[in-house]
Amino acid sequence: MLKVYLKDPDKNYRVIKEFIQDCSIAEPDYDACFKLFHEERYSPYEDLKQMLMFSLIKNSKSELLEKILGKEFTEAITKAFEQVKYSQFPIVDNNNGDIARVYIFEGEFESICFPNTPQFIRESLIKLKKLINKNFFVCFDKIFTGNSFELALASCFYVEDIYRNNFIYTGSVDSFGKVNNIDYIKLKKKIALDNKKFLVSHIDKLEDLSHLNKDVIDLPFIQLFGKSHAELERNFNYLKDKLEGNILNMLEIDLDDLSIYRENFIQNNIDEWECLIDEFYYKISKAYNCNLTVRFHFICSLSAFAFSMGVIIGAKKQLSIYHFQDGKYFEVINFTETSLRKLKQIKQNFEYISYGYESSFDSDELMVCIYAASHNPIGDAKKFINETLHCNLLTINIKDFQGNISIDNSNLWVEITREIYSCINSVNNKQHVSTYHFIFSAPVPLSFALGMAIGDYKRLVVYNFDKSDLSYKKVIDSEKVKKFRNFF
Known about the structure:
By secondary structure, this protein is of the alpha/beta class.
């Protein structure tokens, strides 16, 4: 019987849980159940008390619950049970960790917790009740120590259900509502990551939790090389309406996480580019892993690098891309208003591009030379092929908008990208292509979007023009760059 096992709850813990879960409780157990909720020696066992109360409610054993906790409480808790809220918080013990739940019942309760709930928990609940100014009853599904559960409890009153359970929370709260730092933060972050959650801990005050009530978080991202830091700040200023300080603070994202920046021009060195690609991957992963839908707004300065960024992200994420013209930035591609599927839809007839295909070499590799900006790269590309690559060549030109695609027509940018992608794909259908070599003279948004469309299904090599020796240098090779995969 349960009362026998409750004499030594540590030794018989597993068996007690099985009895409670099956609601295998006979009348001789009633006195032992009463003691579980009232005697001091059972004070730490919040999990067993929570489990038993839930089991009695679910199995319609209100008479027993009344004997244990009183008729008024039983009526109130049964009424509130269908609307119970919960939030999660990490607990640690000697480098081991787990996730616990705090359950919140709102209603007219005379008591805020079980009669023998530990005093440290009771003191926290009294403080939070005053801060939140709500009447509630609280219980927990794990045994724990410390008051870092306080932020999780508060989240039930500030974060809506559909958003709250994307996160776990840790932090103690002072009597003024300020959230304090807590211990074992690295381990708690690991616990969150292992459970595919994001740990919310870095906030100033409880009210900031309401900023998590979002379907989408908009974030700027700047790729800028060879410009002053003042220019980087100006670029951020163009997107200042995309910077939401409170939520960035909670997600532990700062401006450095939202840019790939070098004051000097980057060298056409494949190792340096690989490091930059790894840095980009790390930074966007940090944002994408926050358990909110992130919508990036990209400003980029280098087409070859923007293409690589697009390959990594793939055609899976909502985003916007901006184009610099006449001293200003304009949003020219918006993949929130335009379906990402459209980018990869194959076109048979081309309205906006023309192309040429030269198969001078017996090769399964293909150079793709895109001429969509003011500089014509085709002559240099042919020279590079004849002297170095010895592969076939696909040249793609824009017919009517060379270097001047309308900034007012987002659909036009998408359609041109779609046609370039379709043209590349058509060559692959005619002959097997093992490796694509890319040379760009194209607006940044076009290169970025093309990278999204192409993705990582083939070996991709990207070249950048080097003015020092008037030739092209390999700067990206997908076989070498570990992060050149769209995992998102």
